[in-house]
TrEMBL record:
An individual GO BP term: DNA biosynthetic process
SUPFAM superfamilies recorded: DNA/RNA polymerases (SSF56672)
InterPro entries recorded: DNA/RNA_pol_sf (IPR043502)
Name this polypeptide is given: Regulator of G-protein signaling 5
Region described as Disordered: spans on this chain: 1-36, 110-135
Origin: domain of life: Eukaryota
Gene name in the database record: Rgs5
Biased composition (Polar residues): 9-36
Residues spanning the signal sequence: none
């Protein structure tokens, strides 16, 4: 175990490692004479500042800077107007060619292609380790040339749960075994996830454990209804930063104006919400690559249109790019699985659980927002992860599902009678009231019934996990930490006493009130008589179907012990 140290290289570098590089565009910082006196007005813009502080000067390309200072009598080494270049006392020179001019005035040439340097040196271990990961030798790579690489992007359409198609920007990556979609775009589709246990690893076999599930997708070109391809995409929080990382200059893009491009704005940095991997590469590729010129990206024909991929040489702009690649070694999958097995078999002593950041936020939310009425009943607010989105489409889904439910109940009078009894009890106890207020989320509901000793038992389920164009209500709520006791502890404690009382809290969830500000997220559709208009009701108590309901119910009991335990 040791800390890794990242040493900045004093050369202007541009290195890309697929989607793993981190870049910042801008000009290289220039060296200055520490003894430089106060400057007069700027030779470029006329303002009262040094040339090195001129925004307009920094925005120019190296070639434009040289041309602007061609008749200037100041120093082209330290950019001072107090003396000329021959009288400059600065020990610094150009970091690229070591000539007596400023690095901001260096114009890269094609000869710089041979000046790339690669250094592979293991770093010495440090005794002050703060991480459990072992870091292998670091690879740092630098280059004096401005070679940019375009990863192929395409605008395609993806089908949602209602059969409608939405445009999505994808990157084509033949080096990936799987295809991926972002969680943000998945929420818009209103589709259901399929659980999966795929093992994903990147460079250096680094494991990635952020897979939310698998989504069956149907894709088609943006301007045609055929062909259509089916692909299984893994849902992740994020795929990559904006692509391309910098804007492609016009002298490059002009070569592609006559092509039917899959991404007409491939030259503008924009977000990517889909990665089409090697599993579909052979399905979309058509024909041979087309060359448009030397040192320019090639054009590949696909079912989505022409895709631009490859490198180009940009000698008009200077960009800083720092890329560090570290190979991390983690315990292998088998060791992890065995560890989980051992943890299940190991008796655990009672201790305070370690909360994750989200669990801690949920706990802090409850502690700061719950309150009690004079009757002693607890009132809570829903623990949203962040500001809840617009769930207006939920009313359409809930209405459609309610009409299907009503049709089903009208065909089964025994089930309808039980359902009416349940809803009547809800209204009678004040747990549900009719409302005309604006809905923030309308929850669909359906019955679950079983026959117990010849009697039909019915339970109404409120489906807060139903997907809308903005995701589901449960997607926006904290689940909260696990407060249930381990079953092993319960069984062991059960044996400690000769007499044990087993009790049940009647309508446990419905003993807890929801704050009036949050009840608009708990609206439902219902009517007792199908000949009358459908009504909108507001659930005043904690609903069964909320992801945070188990945590809130047990947390209220714990709070009751804290508030009343002394009695």
């Amino acid at each position: 175990q040791f800390k890794s140290k990242i040493h900045s290289n004093k050369t202007n570098s541009q290195v890309k490692t697929s989607l793993f590089s981190s870049e910042k565009s801008g000009s290289s910082p220039s060296h200055q004479n520490n003894q430089q006196s106060k400057e007069s007005s700027c030779v470029i813009c006329g303002s009262q500042h040094n040339l090195t502080n001129c925004i307009k000067f920094h925005s120019m390309s190296a070639k434009q800077r040289v041309e602007s200072l061609s008749k200037w009598k100041g120093c082209k080494n330290c950019l001072s107007s107090a003396h000329n270049t021959h009288k400059c006392s600065s020990k610094w020179s150009c970091r690229f060619c070591h000539h007596r001019h400023n690095a901001m005035l260096h114009i890269p040439t094609s000869q710089d292609l041979n000046n790339s340097q690669v250094n592979l040196n293991p770093q010495s271990p440090s005794s002050n380790s703060e991480t459990s990961f072992q870091v292998s030798p670091a690879l740092s790579s630098t280059s004096h040339v401005e070679v940019q690489v375009l990863l192929g992007t395409a605008i395609m359409e993806i089908q949602d749960s209602r059969g409608h198609f939405h445009r999505i920007r994808a990157v084509i990556d033949s080096g990936s075994h799987f295809s991926f979609i972002t969680q943000k775009f998945f929420n818009k589709l209103g589709m259901s996830l399929v659980s999966c246990s795929k093992r994903i690893s990147g460079i250096g076999q680094t494991l990635f454990e952020g897979i939310k599930g698998q989504l069956p997708c149907k894709l088609r070109p943006r301007n045609r209804v055929t062909p259509q391809v089916n692909v299984d995409a893994l849902v992740v929080n994020n795929i990559t930063n904006y692509l391309p990382t910098v804007s492609v200059p016009s002298h490059v893009t002009q070569h592609y104006s006559n092509f039917d491009l899959a991404d007409p704005k491939f030259f503008e940095p924009a977000s990517v919400d889909f990665l089409l991997g090697g599993d579909m590469f052979g399905e979309i590729w058509m024909g041979e690559p087309i060359s448009v010129g030397e040192n320019l990206p090639k054009v590949f024909k696909s079912i989505f249109g022409m895709i631009v991929i490859g490198k180009y040489f940009d000698d008009q702009n200077v960009y800083n790019s720092n890329t560090s690649l570290f190979v991390t070694q983690e315990p292998d999958c088998l060791t992890k699985e065995l560890s989980r097995f051992w943890e299940l078999e190991e008796p655990v002593a009672s201790h305070t659980p370690i909360l994750s950041d989200e669990e801690r936020q949920c706990e802090e939310h409850f502690s700061s927002t719950h309150y009690r009425l004079e009757s002693g009943r607890y009132v809570v607010k829903l623990p949203f992860i962040e500001q809840p989105p617009d769930f207006s489409y939920s009313s359409y889904i809930a209405m459609k599902r309610y009409k299907n439910l009503e049709y089903k109940l009208n065909k089964n009078q025994d089930l309808k009678m039980k359902y009416d009894e349940f809803m009547s009890d809800y209204v009678k106890l004040g747990h549900m009231t009719s409302t005309n207020s604006v809905s923030k989320f309308v929850i669909p509901h359906h019955p679950i019934s079983k026959i117990d000793r010849g009697e039909v038992k019915l339970r109404v389920v409120f489906d807060a996990s139903v997907k809308t164009s903005s995701g589901s209500l449960n997607d926006s709520l904290h689940v909260g930490p696990k407060l249930q006791n381990d079953i092993r502890h319960i069984l062991l404690n059960f044996r400690r006493h000769p007499i044990v009382f087993v009790t049940d809290i009647v309508k446990m969830y419905r003993q807890i009130l929801i704050d009036s500000d949050d009840r608009a997220f708990q609206h439902i559709y219902w009517r007792f008589d199908s000949s009358k208009p459908i009504q909108k009701f507001e659930l005043n108590t904690l609903s069964y179907g909320l992801a945070s309901a188990p945590y809130i119910a047990l947390r209220v009991i714990r709070q009751l012990c804290i508030d009343e335990g002394h009695r």
